[in-house]
Amino acid sequence: MNGKTVQLASAAGTVVLGGDLVVHRLGFGAMRLTGEGVWGPPKDRSSAVSLLRRALDLEVNFIDTADSYGPSICEELIAEALAPYPKNLVIATKGGYCRIAPHRWTHDASPDHLRKAVEGSLKRLHLDRIDLYQLHGPDPAISFEASVETLAELRSQGMIRHVGLSNVTREHVERARKIVPIVSVQNRYSFADREWDYLVDYCQQNEIAFIPWAPTRDWMAGSSIVNQIAQAHGATPTQIALAWLLKRSPTVLPIPGTSSAEHLEENVCATFFQLTDDERKQLSTVKKQFRTR
Fold first, then answer.
1. Is the pLDDT of residue 3 over 50?
2. Going by fewer Cβ within 10 Å, which terminus of the chain is more open, N or C?
3. Taking the domains of the chain in order of start, what are their residue ranges?
4. pLDDT class for 224, splitting at 50, 70, 90?
5. Residue 134 has pLDDT above 70, yes or no
6. Does 202 participate in catalysis according to the annotation?
7. How does residue 219 score in pLDDT terms, banded at 50, 70 and 90?
């Protein structure tokens, strides 16, 4: 099979968020739809809109974004392309980061900011309630409990359906769960970047979805091994990286992002490839050789 053969995201199976939202276990990360440096509009807005619609054609029904992507641009594009939304589509967004320039991110997870952020996301996404709202990261200047309590209040007010966390430790998750149910954790993770292995296991044990960001960015760290396995399957290295994640845990929900329809189809085709136990062990020996944001 070659990387251009059309496959559907539903072939990856499903994961349940919060006991009531069933999504296919290969989503779409929308960050790359913005301009360079995750700043400003895309060079071709119509292509970005078409890409989002193509994702739905491929049965992708989980789209991850954030108010800081653009900023605001990604949420606006999603609404332009997809609203009114299909009933089975889950849109997850995040708040707690601010943007002041390309490639520059600052924290603000204060209660006041988070309330305004949720209100802004609701407006831009044309929603009455956000299915999954994630704290983009703990703010070192703000009590973590204060941030989570704010999201819990917004949930009780009906503005948020479920709460998730991003860029956190197990301790953060455990502290947050004392305040509000946590249905997802989104951290950097790939076969070559397994700092959060223990958190993946914790999430599986507690029926929490683990959403890896940068799921394919580090495959070059083990290019010889990855290329060898990819050639054996007639796959691309990116497809092998995603296939490893899909086998890592039934609660892992990869969200590879792209601005290319061809790469979108290639990513979804990763659901076709079944790695042997030996291949999975080989990939697990790879260590990342560089750090990413």
1. no
2. C
3. 14-284
4. confident
5. yes
6. no
7. low
Q: How far apart are CA 249 and CA 272, in angstroms?
A: 17
Residue tagged active-site, from 69, 85, 97, 133: 69
Burial 79-104 (b: 16+ CB within 10 A, else e): bebbeebeeebbbbbbbbbbbeeeee
Which residue in this structure is represented by tokens 């980061």?
97
3-state SS assignment for residue 213: strand
- Tokens 């076969």 belong to which residue? 191
Looking at the DSSP bridge assignments, the partners of residue 94 are: 134
CATH number given to 14-284? 3.20.20.100
Tokens of 15: 């994961």
Q: What share of the chain is helix, strand, coil (3-state, %, to 5)?
A: 40, 20, 40
Output DSSP code: residue 35. Answer: S
Taking the C-alpha atoms of residue 204 and residue 132, their distance in angstroms, rounded to an integer, is 18
Residue range 282-289: mean pLDDT, rounded: 76
